[in-house]
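This part of the workshop introduces the protein records we will be handling. Getting from the letters to the tokens is the skill we practise here. The record below serves as our worked example for the rest of this section.

…
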Amino acid sequence: MTGQKKPKILIFCDYYLPGYKSGGGMRTIVNMIERLHTKFDFRVVTRDHDGKADKTPYKGVRIDDWNNIGNAQVYYLSQKSINLLKFRELIFEVEPDLIYFNSYFATLAIYVLILRRLTLLPQLSVVLAPCGELSAGALELKSLKKKIFIAHANLLGLYKNVIWKASSELEKREIERVKGSGGKILIAPDLPPRGILEKFSTEMKPRKIAGEAKMVFLSRFARKKNFKFLLEKLSTIEGDLTIDIWGPIEEKSYWEECLEIIKSLPASIKIEARGTIPHENVPEMLLKYHFFILPTLGENFGHVFLEALAAGCPLIISDRTPWLDLEEKGIGWDLELETPEEWTKVLNQCLKMDEVTYSKLSNSARHFVLRWLSDPEIEENTLTVLKSGLTNGLS
């Protein structure tokens, strides 16, 4: 595209850099811009703070103004600027060729779609990536409110003729259940960074002693992540188990429920909330653990799974993600939430594991990620979605 004007993509997302507390949906946007900025002119409109639990405005950026952040121009919205008039003004100012959302339920996306439905915007193609919000597990939380919104949105044609980006066949089926009329669904795995922990070596991992294990739970701490389910399986395990929780406590009432169970566990089980961690420090932190564990109610992709595997941490996760058949691949376990006895069995298996067996599993995890990241189709699939939006012009 040298010498040509790059197509302009305007992204509306709740959270963006310099934030790091909001999870994988934001990482997908960051990676997409980093990998594709030579092909597209990216503009981002986002909130002026980091995550739901922290409303403190960022320092070092101009609020209610454009900022050059990496390979994109970013507009940080104060709370007073989150309104229909401001969004219409920004869209007319940018004159994008395509609008991109990474949320189905976010206020920022809904406001723009209302403007579009009222024909208060020029004809623009819209790509929407729900980022796991339409999974069965996610829809079970605040289910009545979500059902009412989806019904009204379909009745009003709010999402009519958008181009949906699913990260997997599983998410495609989830979208089909709620999407309403028109539009099409394209599949493209969420874009990871080009490399993770490129200087990794097995010597960086802690020694695995039979009867002991260090596990890490890295995620926003919310009911959807299902940590209480895990706690209820720990009373019968055999060995010294450490589980460190990294990530913001988004639902304090849920944390209090979990804390009551933690207090009742035997002294051989140590669970501690470590707080938040900047994203650039995550890979090195993961190196300190043997296994990564997340009994989630549903993930559309899971950037953190790739980061954990890259750090040589086999996965212990639910089967409600695209990452399946892990045991057959020799990189972990994807377990049904309906069979809690399997979780206890695997936890005990991990505790009993010796250094030789663990090293083989850890190395398999690392090699799996290296192969996955080197697949050129990963980037091509996202390019196909964006180009489809630019050429089809559904509105």
Summary: The first strand starts at residue 8 and ends at 12. The chain is about 35% helix and 20% strand. Residues 304 and 371 are 17 Å apart (CA to CA). Residues 355-373 form the longest helix (19 residues).
